[in-house]
Specification:
With about 90 residues, this protein is mainly beta. The chain has 1 helix and 9 strands, in the order ββββββαβββ. The strands form 3 sheets. Strands 6-5-4-3-9 form a 5-stranded antiparallel beta sheet. Strands 1-2 form a two-stranded antiparallel ribbon.
Length: about 90
């Protein structure tokens, strides 16, 4: 671990998610996961992604990206990989 701007950050943070086209299970929207980033203050891994149908850019903690959500009474991944672009 190294310290960066007050936060402990792993020196070699390995990506957990593949860049690609994902389906958001709750909204049905498609998003393109561009890459992961590390928060400078907390060291938290973040997913950086864009909406497939607009230019909007979003950031979500990787932990939330991996969460299971309830859709029609079933627990499913929040984001489901549709197309690997790595």
């Amino acid at each position: 671990m190294v310290r960066h701007m007050g936060a402990q950050v792993a020196e070699n943070v390995k990506p957990r998610h593949r860049p690609g086209l994902y389906l958001h299970s709750k909204s049905g929207e498609q998003y393109i996961l561009q890459h992961e980033a590390v928060h400078t203050e907390t060291g938290e891994v973040l997913c950086v992604y864009t909406c497939f149908t607009s230019d909007s850019v979003w950031v979500r903690p990787a932990q939330m990206w991996d969460e299971l959500v309830e859709v029609d009474g079933e627990r499913v991944p929040r984001f489901q990989l549709l197309e690997d672009r790595s």
